[in-house]
Design brief:
With about 210 residues, the protein is an alpha/beta fold. The protein is built from six helices and eight strands; from the N terminus they run H-H-E-H-E-H-E-E-H-E-E-H-E-E. The radius of gyration is 16 Å and the shape is globular.
């Protein structure tokens, strides 16, 4: 399958979502603001609470909800933020926060900048009609890319395969398989899967 093919399909999917719901959790295919915040809380556990300013890569950044959550609901200080999304319409829905933060948004499927920490929340869930094995290979390559572009650590989430009912257009990942893959990259990998949602989060802290 051509790379441009999956990008076009996924971009069109999210373009329709954001046109329907705007810059909201539903506009990037989350059920609610509460579940979105719960996922962010898990992801951000990779950052030590030492108060030092950090730079961040946000892969599949949507309308910037992660950055707004960090600034409004945590003590984490951000000096540089790099947001990546393949959907132009989603990026156009952004409202940049106030403050002296370097913010760079790019319409791309690549991770371009080296940052202290990298994140991806929900970007791996929607596969549409893309074969599952091809989608999983794509995700593993992206996780490796995020690892290489992270100085101190990274965190990402996926829908769990440990459920009875599955939507055909979504990708459900085996947490143990992904934890094994991440443990081979280096550093310390931790699986979080007990926060009340049908997904899991992996944190990787580099040594």
């Amino acid at each position: 399958m051509a790379m441009q093919s999956w990008k076009t399909k996924i971009s069109e999917y999210y373009k329709n979502k954001v046109k329907q719901f705007g810059a909201t959790p539903q506009g990037v295919d989350w059920n609610s603001k509460e579940s979105q915040a719960t996922r962010f809380e898990q992801l951000l556990k990779v950052i030590p609470q030492d108060g030092e300013p950090v730079s961040i890569n946000d892969y599949g950044c949507g309308y910037g909800a992660l950055l707004h959550y960090i600034l409004n609901s945590t003590c984490i200080r951000v000096n540089s933020y790099y947001g990546y999304d393949i959907c132009r319409e989603v990026l156009q829905s952004w409202t940049k926060p106030k403050g002296r933060i370097k913010i760079e948004l790019t319409q791309t499927s690549e991770v371009l900048h080296l940052a202290d920490y990298s994140f991806s929340s929900g970007a791996f869930n929607v596969k549409l009609d893309i074969p599952e094995d091809k989608w999983k290979k794509l995700i593993l390559n992206l996780v490796y890319s995020l690892y290489r572009k992270s100085r101190k650590g990274l965190a990402f989430n996926c829908l769990t395969s440990h459920i009875d009912y599955k939507e055909p257009h979504l990708f459900y990942a085996d947490p143990e398989e992904f934890l094994l893959f991440c443990s081979k990259l280096g550093g310390t990998s931790t699986l979080l899967d007990n926060y009340g949602l049908y997904d899991w989060t992996i944190l990787i802290k580099k040594d």
